[in-house]
Structure formats: C-alpha cells, structure tokens
Design goal:
The structure is a single chain. The chain is an alpha/beta fold. It is built from 11 helices and 13 strands. Helices cover 40% and strands 20% of the residues. The structure holds 2-acetamido-2-deoxy-beta-D-glucopyranose (4 copies). Keywords: Disulfide bond, Glycoprotein, Glycosyltransferase, Golgi apparatus, Lipid metabolism, Membrane, Sialic acid, Signal-anchor, Transferase, Transmembrane, Transmembrane helix. This is alpha-N-acetylneuraminyl-2,3-beta-galactosyl-1,3-N-acetylgalactosaminide6-alpha-sialyltransferase.
C-alpha cells in the first residue's frame, strides 16, 4: 500500500516537473521572439522583452487600437522625421527635408499651416496627449477632415481613457470618430501605458508615479517610433545640457506660441515636486537610446558621445 502511494506521488511530482519545464520553455521562446524580429539596427535586450511581437513587413502595434474598429495600429516606416514643438524649429527652413521623410511625426496640436517652410506640410502620424484632445476638438474639421490621411495616436491615463462610458477624453474621441468616420484615431491601451511607465523606471531607476511626474508626449512618441521606423531624425529637440551651455539659443517653448521660454519651462518642470514633466531626465534617456538605435538629433545638431 505504502509502496503504491509512493509511486503515485512520484508520478504526480513528475507531471508537475514536466509542466513547469514546458512553461519555462514557452516563456523563454516568447521573450526571444520580439528580440529576433526587431529589425531596428541593433536589438536591445533591455526593453524588448516587454514589447509586442511584430508580424511581417507591415508592423502591427498591438498597444494601440482603432477607436472605431478596435483593430491594432499598423505602421511601418523607413526614415522617420519627428518634429519637435520647440521654438528651436523657428527659422530652420527644413520643411522640405522633413516632408521627404517616409513618415512625418508631429505631437499634440502643433500646426503646419503658415509654418510650412520651417516644419513641413505632411503629417503621417500625430501623437497626442489626453490633455491636448480638447485643443484638437477646437478645430475638428481641420484635424479630422482636411488632414484625414493622418493617423492619430492618443495617450492618457486610465481614468480619462476608460471605455465604459466614464472616460471623459475617450468619450470625446468616440464622438469625433462617429462624426468623422474617415478619421484614423487610435488609443493607447492600458497595458501599453504601463509598459511606457516601466521603460521610465528601467531607464531612470525612478517610479514615475512616486516621483510625481508625467511622461511627456515626446516619450510616448519616441517609444512608438523606435518600433515603427528603421531610422529617426529628430528635428528641434535639444539635449539635456543645452540649457546650461554657453550661449544657448533662447527660444519660445513652442514654435507656434510666444510667451513661455523653453529653458525656463524645462527647469520649472524638472524641479517641480509633482504634476510636471521631466523633460531633462527624458533627454538623458533619449541620448542613451540614440547610442544604440539609428536616431539623429538635428537643428540643433547634437551627437551622442
Ligand atoms: C502574419 O503575416 C502573415 C503573412 O505575412 C499573415 O498570413 C498572417 O495572417 C499574419 N498574422 C497576423 C496575426 O496578423
Ligand atoms: C479627405 O481629405 C481630402 C483632401 O483634403 C478631401 O478631398 C476628402 O474629401 C476628405 N475625405 C473626407 C471623407 O472628408
Ligand atoms: C548638448 O548641446 C550643447 C549646446 O549645443 C553642446 O555644447 C553639447 O556638446 C551637447 N552635448 C552633447 C552630449 O551632444
Ligand atoms: C546639422 O546636420 C545636418 C544633417 O546632418 C546638416 O545638414 C547641417 O548642416 C548641420 N548643421 C549645422 C549647423 O552643423
């Protein structure tokens, strides 16, 4: 009797061990997959395991879903131009160069109208903060009808983006999508939002929420662009020491608004105890990414040593 019991428990233990082994094998293969498929220059082991696997030449980005069809975003670019909203763009006259990129990325409500010579005309994709959605809705005909080939990717916290009828910003977007049926509006999933938080924690060692800060639209833009583009030119973005360097160019915070000054604004945000962006910390991280990926910062030009 004792002998039979012993044999039975041995079998049970054996089955458990085999199951566990299979689970580990599967985990490992899932972690390897996105790494191997990431064709962007040199793959980075540090953060790809959390990314989503991609399929074929049209890359599918499962962290962003169409608000009407619920389909994931499909975007595959060669050379991308990311145009900063910074006053650094004023007078750069790089509009033509920007428009020749395979995809042109803009952020929030940054206009092209009457700034074409400096910032270009085309917009392939616009990454928009939940706080900037009301600004788009001030001129919905322009954003969702005239420029109806543009993809919109909206990011925001769960409380504003929840889909159960209580997400204020989500509701606004739903309404716009119902009215402008050709508009391509995507929302960032909750899972992808926490992935972006996770990247911040990994890169800075700081928990974003505990440190009382918000990620910037630039952060979300660069993370998606690194998945969707084979190379990136960032226009008008300064580096982390620019505002402390000799003879830096004093420019407005945004190229389309006067009033706030770029460096003043950066210092204000960096040092605020809560409710602010960490633009300077983020730039340090961007510089690190630029060492490993095909990212070039231009106008002002800066290289990563
Ligand atoms: C992946 O791509 C192949 C062809 O490239 C296609 O047949 C398949 O449906 C795709 N799978 C998904 C999940 O999109
Ligand atoms: C999309 O934009 C083009 C170019 O501005 C315009 O001709 C067309 O009517 C727009 N489509 C819709 C459905 O508004
Ligand atoms: C950052 O920008 C400043 C001002 O343009 C420059 O002096 C400095 O060398 C740059 N730093 C890096 C690492 O490129
Ligand atoms: C900045 O870099 C671009 C392209 O790499 C180059 O065309 C331009 O002349 C550079 N500008 C300055 C001021 O060095």
């Amino acid at each position: 009797m004792a002998c039979i019991l012993k044999r039975r428990s041995l079998v049970v233990v054996g089955v458990i061990v085999v199951c566990f082994f299979l689970m580990v094998l599967r985990l490992i293969s899932e972690m390897k997959l996105p790494l191997q498929r990431n064709s962007f220059d040199k793959p980075i082991a540090r953060w790809m395991p959390f990314s989503y696997p991609q399929n074929g030449s049209i890359r599918t980005h499962f962290g962003y879903v169409n608000i009407r069809t619920h389909e994931p975003l499909q975007l595959d670019c060669d050379l991308c131009a990311i145009v900063s909203n910074s006053g650094q763009m004023s007078g750069q006259r790089v509009g033509n160069e920007i428009d020749q990129s395979s995809c042109v990325w803009r952020m929030n409500n940054a206009p092209t109208k009457s700034f074409e010579e400096d910032v270009g005309r085309r917009t392939t994709i616009r990454v928009v903060s939940h706080t900037s959605v009301p600004l788009l809705l001030k001129d919905p005909d322009y954003f969702f009808k005239e420029t109806n080939s543009t993809l919109f990717v909206i990011w925001g916290p769960f409380r504003n983006m929840r889909t159960d009828g209580n997400g204020i910003i989500y509701n606004m977007l739903r309404k716009a999508a119902d009215r402008y049926t050709d508009a391509k509006i995507y929302v960032t999933t909750e899972k992808r939002m926490s992935y972006c938080d996770g990247v911040f924690k990994k890169e800075t060692g700081k928990d974003r929420i505990q440190s009382g800060s918000f990620l910037s639209t630039g952060w979300f833009t660069l993370i998606l662009a690194m998945d969707a583009c084979y190379g990136i030119h960032v226009f008008g973005m300064i580096n982390d020491t620019y505002c402390k360097s000799d003879g830096f160019r004093k420019v407005p915070y945004h190229y389309y608004e006067s009033g706030k000054n770029e460096c003043d604004e950066y210092f204000l945000h960096e040092n605020a105890p809560f409710g602010s962006h960490r633009f300077i910390t983020e730039k340090t991280v961007f510089a690190r990414w630029a060492k490993k990926k095909k990212i070039i910062f231009t106008h002002p030009n800066w290289t990563v040593s």
